[in-house]
Write a structure and sequence with these properties.
The structure is a homodimer. By secondary structure, chain A is mainly beta. Chain A has a domain of 157 residues: Transcription factor, T-box (Immunoglobulin-like), CATH 2.60.40. Chain A is built from three helices and 15 strands. In chain A, the strands form four sheets. In chain A, strands 2, 5, 8, 9, 13, 14 and 15 form a seven-stranded mixed sheet that branches. Chain A has a three-stranded antiparallel sheet with strand order 1-4-10. Chain A has a three-stranded mixed sheet with strand order 3-11-12, with no helix packed on it. The longest helix of chain A has 10 residues. The radius of gyration of chain A is 19 Å and the shape is globular. The chains hardly touch. The structure holds a DNA duplex. Chains A, B: One of its GO terms (biological process) is positive regulation of DNA-templated transcription.
DNA sequence: CCCTTTTCACCTAGGTGGTAAGAT
DNA sequence: ATCTTACCACCTAGGTGAAAAGGG
């Protein structure tokens, strides 16, 4: 998967304008996305699985960069998991108007007859935080040397969190974003800030924040693919 | 414990000349040192215990620094652990002339009648490596914010090690050294390199490199004080 | 004989979803 | 009813010295 980079291509600093990011574990992300990815949020903070990892290219090997992530609401709805009341329609995945955004459309999958249903307007947005990759800042050469992994990033639903974790509303949908920021050594570099970064969004990484898994197929795929959940695997081992 | 800083006090850059380092866990280091500290070296690399940790002060909060460690031979001897052959003298701890260096003198302790005995000239010196603290480079403010811990540093006796570990000769004595290096942003800053660092040696951290512990009292103190060795503790717990 | 290597049980430290109880 | 929390057994990952085996 290659990320959409937004519409503006004008006026970027040459240290970031050629930057490119390839999502790692793309097929796993797509497998989750087809079912409707769910990510657990807890008071103490929970890692994402799959982990957000990218392979970078096109950076200036000798320049300094900061790498970071943030999470933007995909819509202004809150959701619930369950059976729709009447017949088809009325807000469930892919039914209403406005669902004609191919890459952002919710998954069509439903477990037995349960599915994600819109359930009113979004709650007030949580404090918008960012997560800096802990190796930041580092040279372009260092970032491009190997896969960059955001495995220290944790998601929480605690609005008062003071561990620096990403705060999300449960039962709301989010799109992870990844940003490459050139550390401009010039004085008053703030005035060029808008030119010095490049952002990437991978649609297959969007997810629903939950406090407990709703879709059993998501649970089973997490158990099957996350090494830390091996204790819940049933039968035949497949490497 | 405060470190000796070498004899030269002239011509240091103002970004390092006020730097100070206090050794953490000083009483534990001294307890080991009284018995004659031993550190295990293995082919794969072994951590030090106690871990080398310092609290820094006197740095420029806004300047960049690199922190690193190296290990210098304390003498040109190789040692063995055992009973001396004849009567007192002939090379054991504190017996010969030249042992009049108060801070570098070997410990007087002997287990039953065993002790460390000089056993000839040192083996050829191992490749002199340094260990950069993995957070390097970082601002002075960041380094001074909390204790700086070198818990990722590993010691090996494998001369061909390619994991970047510190290579030492077993049965030889070493003095850990700690260096604060100001990252000079000036062009051709190499020419000022000798002014841009400050070094610290804590005599209580000197040790004998071994492949297996020789002094049983060292073994018992390691077991009593290293959390990872809790499985070997016998009786009463003392916090 | 002295030193080194390998393997092992036993820890620390922390990431999983299940489960039952709690909250609204 | 629906969502959240706290606790738990069960993992991964890796740091301990003991003991036995290996090597010069």
């Amino acid at each position: 998967g290659w990320a959409s980079e937004g519409l503006r291509s004008s006026g970027k600093n040459r240290r970031v304008c050629h930057a490119a990011a390839r999502l790692e574990m793309g097929s796993l992300w797509e497998e989750f996305n087809r079912l409707g990815t769910e990510m657990i949020v807890t008071k103490a903070g929970r890692r994402m699985f799959p982990t957000f990892q990218v392979k970078l290219s096109g950076l200036d090997p000798l320049a300094d960069y900061v790498l970071l992530m943030d999470f933007i609401p995909l819509d202004d709805k809150r959701y619930r998991w369950g059976r729709s009341y009447g017949d088809a329609g009325a807000g469930e995945w892919g039914a209403g108007p406005g669902s004609a955004q191919p890459l952002l459309a919710p998954p069509r999958y439903a477990f037995h007859s349960s599915s994600w249903l819109a359930a009113g307007r979004a709650d007030p947005a949580a404090p918008g935080r960012v997560h800096f990759h802990p190796d930041s800042p580092a040279k372009g050469a260092q970032w491009m040397r190997q896969i960059v992994s955001f495995d220290k990033l944790k998601l929480t639903n605690n609005l008062l969190d003071d561990n620096g974790h990403i705060i999300l509303n449960s039962m709301h949908r989010y799109q992870p974003r990844f940003h490459v920021v050139f550390v401009d050594p010039r004085r008053d570099s703030e005035r060029f800030a808008h030119q010095n970064f490049k952002s990437f969004s991978f649609p297959e990484t969007q997810f629903m924040a939950v406090t407990a898994y709703q879709n059993h197929r998501i649970t089973q795929l997490k158990i099957a693919s996350n090494p830390f959940a091996k204790g819940f695997r049933d039968g035949d081992p497949e490497p």
